[in-house]
From TrEMBL:
Gene3D superfamilies: 3.30.1240.10, HAD superfamily/HAD-like. One of its GO terms (cellular component) is cytosol. GO terms for molecular function: magnesium ion binding; phosphatase activity. This is Haloacid dehalogenase. It comes from the Bacteria. InterPro entries: Cof (IPR000150), HAD-like_sf (IPR036412), HAD-SF_hydro_IIB (IPR006379), HAD_sf (IPR023214).
């Protein structure tokens, strides 16, 4: 039966206006009472995730910065953390500085850092994702452990930024995390690694996990659960690798609906499904 549920945030759990489904905090507490744990798996900053789940942050787990850091919310213990080499951080920043209309956010353990002063960009694309953030004169001189670089291009990172980093794909994990965002992390670091870390820590098996996602930075994470759900609004590439698809989109509270549908009445629907598909378990 299901013991752990993990959901991506933007495009999955959250509505387009970045709001949480009504009653979701209460649902997390109800799940915990049933012995089912919940984790957020996101490209967002850890502090931002903790703030978003403030009423229940001690009742859950966090896979933040696309798998760069994983923590136990009840104890604040860091279960896993991965940082970028600062020499390459500087090199990648210089590359981005030569790409028109491109903004870099250096994601450190203490804070997020940026050079630009564009208020519109800050309000729409930084503040919603980074609870702790600050403007500095030179992001190549930041004194912090660097988890990842988040690169913003409003015309689309897949076509305008990603091609500039193709020569580094063998040595770094470079992921288009949204239309306008691209993340650069250490090699083999992704949300899937965070799921592996969490499952090992909790002693949970793949068939006991339910995961929701919609975009390419969810690709590896979704392969860590048998009950992998692509959002109805997910990319075709994500739907291809998932075993299930949500009935509703993120704007229709698709994640909340599936959790309640499958896990209500002591996981009755899930039990029925597993009995009819014994070969998979």
């Amino acid at each position: 039966m299901i013991k752990l549920i993990i959901s991506d945030m933007d495009g999955s759990l959250l509505n387009t206006d970045k709001t949480m489904p009504k009653g979701f905090f209460e649902l997390i507490q109800q799940l915990k009472q049933q012995g089912i744990l919940f984790a957020a798996g996101s490209g967002r900053q850890l502090a931002s995730l903790q703030n978003s789940f403030q009423p229940v942050q001690k009742d859950m787990y966090f896979i933040a910065e696309n798998g760069c850091i994983t923590i136990d919310g009840s104890t604040q213990n860091v279960l896993d953390v991965h940082c970028l080499d600062k020499g390459y951080v500087k090199k990648f920043i210089e590359i981005c500085r030569n790409i028109p209309d491109t903004y870099v956010v250096v994601c450190g353990r203490k804070s997020a850092y940026y050079e630009f002063k564009n208020e519109k960009i800050l309000l729409q694309h930084v503040t919603p994702y980074y609870f702790h953030h600050q403007q500095v004169e030179d992001i190549t001189k930041v004194e912090d452990d660097i988890l990842k670089l988040a690169v913003l291009n409003l015309q689309g990172t897949a076509s305008h930024v990603y091609p500039n980093f193709e020569t580094y794909l063998n040595n770094f994990n470079i992921s288009v995390s949204a239309f306008e965002w691209m993340d650069i992390m250490a090699k083999d670091i992704h949300k899937g690694l965070g799921v592996q870390t969490l499952c090992k820590y909790l002693g949970i098996q793949k068939h006991e996990v339910m995961i929701f996602g919609d975009f390419m930075n969810d690709y590896e994470m979704l392969q860590e659960a048998y009950f992998s759900f692509a959002m109805k609004n997910a990319l075709p590439e994500i739907k291809e690798i998932c075993n299930f698809e949500t009935t509703f989109t993120n704007d229709e509270d698709g994640v909340k609906y599936e959790i309640e549908y499958w896990l209500s009445n002591n996981q009755e629907k899930l039990r029925e499904y597993m009995e009819n598909n014994e070969a998979f378990f």
